[in-house]
Amino acid sequence: MSLNSTPYYFVPAPSKYPVLASIGLLGFGGGMSAWVNGLSWGGPLVLAAVIYVLFVLYGWFGTAISESNTGKNGVNVDVSYRWSMSWFIFSEIMFFAAFFAALFYARSITVPWLSDVDNKLLWPDFVASWPTVGPANLVEKFSTIGPWPIPTINTLLLLSSGVTVTWAHHALREGNRQHAIYGLFATVSLGLIFLGFQAYEYIHAYSDLNLKLTSGIYGSTFFMLTGFHGFHVFLGGLMLTIVLRRMIRGDFTAENHFGFEGAAWYWHFVDVVWLGLYIVVYWM
What is the mean pLDDT of residues 103-129? Predict the structure, then answer.
């Protein structure tokens, strides 16, 4: 369905979904806080909140898709969607920038400061090296995860997925829906394999390397950066799965497919963030 050229801006009716999503996100935040502090009900609350939010998003996205398929969205709405997605991705960039800044501060400022002359009287045996177990040796010994093999394999997987989603986009713009479906299916599959490798890496870190979220500043920054990135891979894969379903049923045309473009933008953002993680976390 092509975009209509109506001069007015379609304004949807008041929606219940923002309030419902806020409730789920509040439960997710509370559950995560309880989980990392060792409370038994934290994990189940996080799981329940994620399932709840997914159901809310299913209804919310369904309403937006219905508005698009019935021709209510004109050019003005399309421009609004593009700006909204751009600002959303910018907010995600700032989100990850905060975690990268925390890693930089801990590694390049805090650790050298703890080993300077003024602090030698307090911690004479502390060596300013990264990773660190802290000056007071309160953190259990752990081993780090190097770039090979899983992080490098995951890098190749995400770079390949960036190629396949671009292939799908070009195919759609050329009117080749079959190749667009193939490209999207390959992208989603590569994302799932990435998550499988990351889950194995976490199990290996906890069981074999004693590397945990509680392993000092190294453990917390490692799992926060890689864990939130994995969550974003999951969200991006979910978006692309919905887009794939819509592609199969013929919702998109060569002229009107911002639902696909927005998800593709997000996926490329996830790829770029991973490249930064791969270099800063696993190599440096």
Answer: 85
Quick one: which H or E segment has residue 31? helix 17-36
Domains and CATH numbers, the chain: 1-73 (1.10.287.70), 74-283 (1.20.120.80)
Q: How many helices (H) and strands (E) does the chain have?
A: 9, 0
The pTM is what? 0.89
Residues 69, 74, 75: CA angle, nearest 5 degrees: 130
Per-residue pLDDT reduced to its tens digit, 250-271: 999 888 899 999 999 999 999 9
How far is CA 88 from each of CA 125, 189, 262, rounded to the nearest angstrom?
Answer: 46, 25, 10
CA–CA distance, 246 with 268 (Å, rounded to integer): 20
Where do the DSSP E strands lie in the chain? none
Q: From CA 122, how far away is CA 135, in angstroms rounded? A: 9
Residue 222 banded pLDDT, cuts 50, 70, 90 = very high
